[in-house]
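To fix ideas, we give here one paired sequence and structure record:
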Amino acid sequence: MSGRCTSWRRIFPAQPRFVSPPLAERLLKGRDAERLLKGRETVLLKEFIFTPPAVASSVIGDTDVAEFVRGYARPGGWNGAQAIYASNLREAEDYRQLVTAHPLPMPVLAIDQDGSNFTAASFAAAAPGRLMARTIPGTGHYIAMEAPEALAATILQFTGPTG
C-alpha cells in the first residue's frame, strides 16, 4: 500500500496529505477523472499502471508510455478505460447468471499473466469442461505487448492448424 500511496500522491500533488489511495480511486471512477488526471497522465502510467505486478518486464518503454499518454490526454481519452473498469464492477452478477443459464458449448481459451489464474477462474463457470487455460511466463497485465510471440503461439495452438 505504501507504494500505491506514493504514486497517488504524485498524481495529486496539490493536496498530497488530503488524498488517500481509497479517495483517489473513488475520484478516478467518477465523472471528474479526466479533469483530475489532465497533465498527470505520464506520472499515472509510469509510476502506477506500468509497474510490477501489472507489467512484469521492461518491454514497455518511454515510447510506449508516450503513445498511451497521447491517447489519454485527448478530450475524452479516459472514457474508454473508465467505462471498462466500471462495467466490470457492475456486471459481475449479470455474468454469473448468464453463464449459469447458458454455458458456452465451444472450447474456450483463457490466457493469464505469470503467477495468476484470474482469467481461467473467471471463465471456468462459462465453459465447464471446455476450458483450456494457459499462462504466459514473464508477463504482467499487458501480455500482448510484453510477449506477442508467446501469445500468438498460444492462440495458434488453441485454434489448431490453418490453411
